[in-house]
Amino acid sequence: MSLVTMKYFLEKARKNKCAVGAFNFFGLENLRGIIKAASSKKSPVIAMASMGALKVMGLDVVVSAARALSQEYETDIVLHLDHCTDMDLLFMCIDHGFTSVMIDASDKDYDENVRLTRLAVDYAAKTGCSVEAELGHVGGVEDNIVVSEREALFTVPEDAEKFVNDTNIDALAVSVGTVHGFYKLPPKLDFERITAIHTRTAIPLVLHGGTGVSDEDFKKAIGLGILKINVGTELKVHGYFDVMKNTSLAVKDSDPRKVSTAIVDACASIVSTKIEVFGSRGIL
Ligand SMILES: [Zn+2]
Q1: N or C: less crowded end of the chain, CB within 10 Å?
Q2: What share of the chain is helix, strand, coil (3-state, %, to 5)?
Q3: Inside any domain, residue 80
Q4: How far is the CA of 257 from the centre of ligand 1 (A)?
Q5: Which of 60, 76, 82, 109 is catalytic?
Q6: 75: containing domain
């Protein structure tokens, strides 16, 4: 059991008419929770580290832990770098064994986005690492990338077709009505746009901002070409922070292991629920 490419898992998802969940981790406990859930559901998962998570955990620790947990739970996983805006870090992650990376140059103009994305694609070819890129802006807050909801731009299908041809990426993150973080109002997904992009590009599409999207909307989006769905905020808040806070207060004997176990279980529970909704149970 080891780290496999995103391309491999997304191909499986396409064949099985489902989507693969991509889950952010911030520490060893929730990485363990994600992989534990994947193993028990016999489902593919993509474990994602953001630039911020890497800074806190350390690159070598992340890669070693992902490999070790994949073996411990006897399940293949993807180790993915989420929203990378730093080319040197992206190259380093590829060199250290990440099997998937996201280059996020979506705040640049079209030509610069293509240039940086191609640099990532060319470098990743050395190891076979998969590459995701973004066209259009998915609004919200994620680590240090702040895109106001007002400025968020939806992906234009014609541009997406050109972008995919110009870059040769493995997956495209699209802006179709979701944002990062918690929604103030339920999101309205632009399903027609997803269909139009899917028809023109024929590559796996990625939905960011999965926290707060209804199960019904997820299923509809999957049927229209979304093959990877990112869930971050829900794990960060309900799978980690709230659990840490509440368990710490509830535990009377100051035993940190009880907090660790509670985080693992909470994350595994959230991920298991998403696996059922995304339809990926049993396909590994
Ligand atoms: Zn995202």
Answers
A1: N
A2: 50, 15, 30
A3: yes
A4: 31
A5: 82
A6: 6-278
